[in-house]
């Protein structure tokens, strides 16, 4: 019988949480050399050059430790980079390229992975762990609630003061983080203090996932989805409503572990998601499916219409549109598997 994701409730160890702080499989081969800027948007080439320049300066001036290090001055606060732009313009490619070209100890994770790690280790221990890195990469930087705002702004200040270079990607400028989601003005000082540590690189462009394939991914017959799941080793099969209910019981930082060894995800009863909590959890699941290059076969409603217009107009709209782009891409990958069978 085909396994369901609802049967999985992973509890990764602290060692696993730390070991997972590396770029995901989709970007394992990402390098500056294979980042191809769109000539219609000069900011992409400019960002590529700036990342290369930034990489050359990482680690300069930091203490090397040992006896000599005792007599060195405390490192000056490090400047970071903040890659801002729409989804699909190559921000994550550039971020992972920087990770790969940087030598020494460096860490990479999504925003939610860092907040979970700090919660698991405690703030002081997490800072001590990350302070040994020459580079900390933060993907999908979004402040969705006041607690995360205070936690991440403090973490960035602490690491920057210790000379750690920090590079983040987001769809929102630092001073606009939290807008439309909570009373961001109440935390304006913390947000501004954090944003002062970054040089902002604005990257313009169109979603690369739609440059060569603009067609959508139509829903498949449920029988087709079920038969393919039953015939595919490592496949999972879930109806969307119980899957959304199950996601409530698993911390979003564990969604990646929930997908261990999954080769293809199959969804039935796909219907419109109207609730923010369900929508945002599903966004994280799609991100982890995309990171791990796991194709999706779905029946029910077309995935392009999975979020209501109200969600798409909300303060989280950029997250939802990114998820639509990624989910449609994964559904097209699933359709190609069927065509090749």
From TrEMBL:
Signal peptide: none annotated. Pfam families: AFG1_ATPase. The keyword Nucleotide-binding applies. SUPFAM superfamilies: P-loop containing nucleoside triphosphate hydrolases. GO terms for cellular component: cytoplasm. It comes from the Bacteria. GO terms for molecular function: ATP binding; ATP hydrolysis activity. GO terms for biological process: cell division. Keywords: ATP-binding, Cell cycle, Cell division, Nucleotide-binding. The keyword Cell division applies. NCBIfam families: ZapE. This is Cell division protein ZapE.
């Amino acid at each position: 019988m085909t396994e369901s994701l609802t049967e999985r409730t992973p509890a990764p160890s602290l060692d696993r949480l730390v070991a997972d702080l590396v770029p995901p499989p989709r970007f394992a081969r990402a390098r500056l050399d294979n980042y191809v800027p769109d000539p219609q948007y000069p900011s992409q080439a400019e960002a590529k050059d700036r990342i290369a320049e930034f990489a050359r300066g990482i680690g300069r001036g930091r203490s090397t430790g040992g006896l000599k290090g005792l007599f060195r001055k405390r490192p000056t606060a490090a400047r970071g980079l903040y890659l801002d732009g729409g989804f699909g313009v190559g921000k994550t490619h550039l971020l992972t390229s920087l990770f790969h070209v940087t030598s020494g100890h460096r860490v990479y994770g999504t925003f939610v992975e860092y907040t979970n790690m700090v919660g698991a280790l405690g703030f002081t221990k997490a800072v001590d762990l990350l302070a040994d890195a020459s580079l900390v990469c933060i993907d999908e930087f979004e402040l969705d609630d006041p607690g995360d705002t205070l936690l991440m702004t403090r973490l960035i200040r602490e690491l920057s003061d210790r000379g750690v270079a920090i590079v983040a990607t987001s769809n929102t400028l630092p001073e606009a983080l939290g807008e439309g989601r909570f009373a961001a003005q109440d935390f304006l000082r913390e947000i501004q203090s954090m944003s002062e540590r970054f040089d902002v690189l604005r990257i313009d462009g169109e979603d690369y996932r739609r440059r060569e394939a603009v067609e959508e991914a139509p829903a498949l017959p449920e029988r087709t989805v079920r038969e393919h799941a039953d015939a595919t080793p490592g496949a999972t099969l879930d109806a969307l409503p119980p899957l959304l209910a199950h996601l409530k019981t698993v911390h979003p930082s564990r969604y990646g572990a929930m997908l261990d060894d999954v080769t293809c995800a199959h969804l039935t009863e796909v219907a419109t998601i109207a609730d923010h909590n369900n929508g945002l959890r599903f966004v994280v699941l799609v991100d982890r499916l995309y990171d791990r290059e796991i194709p999706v076969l779905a029946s029910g409603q077309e995935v392009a219409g999975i979020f209501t217009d109200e969600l798409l107009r909300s303060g989280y709209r950029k997250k939802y549109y990114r998820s639509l782009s990624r989910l449609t891409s994964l559904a097209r990958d699933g359709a190609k598997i069927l065509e090749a069978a």
